[in-house]
Amino acid sequence: MGQRDAYYDYIRAFAALLVLLCHKGKMPGGSIGVSIFFCLSGFLITRILIRMHSLSPPDIAGFIFRRFMRIFPLYMTTLGVAVILAWGFHPEILPRLIDGLPGLLTFTHLPKDTGYATAVAWSLHAEFWFYLLFPVVFALTYNRGLLPLVIAILIGVSIWAKNNDGGTPESWPIGNDQWLTVLYLDQLMYGAICALLIEKNSNIVGLFSSRWWFWGALLANLAIAKIAVLTHWHLEMSIAALLCAIAILHHHASKTILKNNFIAWIGRISFSLYLVHAVVLDYLPYEKLPNVLDTPSFLVITFALSYLTERFIERPGIRIARLWRDSGTSLAPVTLKRP
Predict the structure, then answer these.
(1) Which of 3-7, 78-82, 130-134, 278-282 has the lowest mean pLDDT?
(2) Partners of 331 in the beta sheet?
(3) How many CB atoms sit inside 10 A of residue 301's CB?
(4) Which terminus, N or C, of the chain has the lesser number of Cβ atoms within 10 Å?
């Protein structure tokens, strides 16, 4: 695999900080941060699939296993910590939390009124079914030249779903969290489009070379997060995903190189930040802290714990996934099968 690109870590850091500060009540924009993650996930997953040596069933199964090992160990750990802390500090929510564990662990249902620690899992539930199903769709359509058409259909279905059945879980046509994947599928597919354009060396990518594409997308995201009041609940998030797609295309058009610094480090631990901050929000005794230390203590504790979870939980899971890859499933950059 090639050297890690710090540019994507910068994007992750920006999205993660939006989520953290929104949930702390310092600014709006948490949903925008999640939409940026969705677009970036769609891009990176599609790019990996395009570069796979083959799309045989064992290779696709191996890819899905590696994605599972990327998210499940930390997810399971934070849920376990949440159960222990609820038992000790919030016993009133413990029965609901325990009853909700089967749905949480199978990515099929989110329990209500059990705190941030479970509420933030909604985005993982949406992405999990994307990780499970999209590689199969990709394998069936890519070499036949049908993937662009399928992506267009999926975007249309997602937009239709948001406009017709997306308001509340009670209105969903199916009663579990797979419908979350449908609702946010357009944002994942904007990233997939970026991957196709870049891996095919499309001339369209060159249109985004100006640095104003990047800074314009960044400023537009901040403006949307701060002041946007839109008629349809989903437009704000879909626009943010599109702006993330612009930033990705600009990066490849301008060959931007960013330093591997503290901001990049935030991006590298962003998954831990996303899950860990929710547990800290639920159980840090803010009422015992001076107001001036409220947000700083939240950030310091979240960053410290996320450093530990990224190092001792995320990385081992990734190493196990790589051992699977290296032992039998080939994954290497190759020339595209289609021009």
Answers:
(1) 3-7
(2) 52
(3) 14
(4) C
103: amino acid identity, one letter: G
Burial class of residue 175 in the structure, from the number of CB atoms within 10 Å of its CB (0-12 exposed, 13-18 middle, 19+ buried)? exposed
The pLDDT of 82-101, averaged and rounded, is 96
Q: Confirm if 14 and 36 have CB atoms less than 8 A apart.
A: yes
Pairwise CA distance, residues 336 & 333, whole Å: 9
Helix, strand, or coil here: 324? helix
Question: pTM here?
Answer: 0.89
**In this structure, is the dihedral angle defined by the CA atoms of residues 131, 137, 140 and 144, taken in order, positive or negative?**
negative
Q: Report the 3 state secondary structure along 14-80.
A: HHHHHHHHHHCCCCCCHHHHHHHHHHHHHHHHHHHHHHECCCCHHHHHHHHHHHHHHHHHHHHHHHH
Residues 6+ apart with CB under 8 A from 308: none
Per-residue pLDDT at 234: 67
* Mean residue pLDDT across the chain: 87
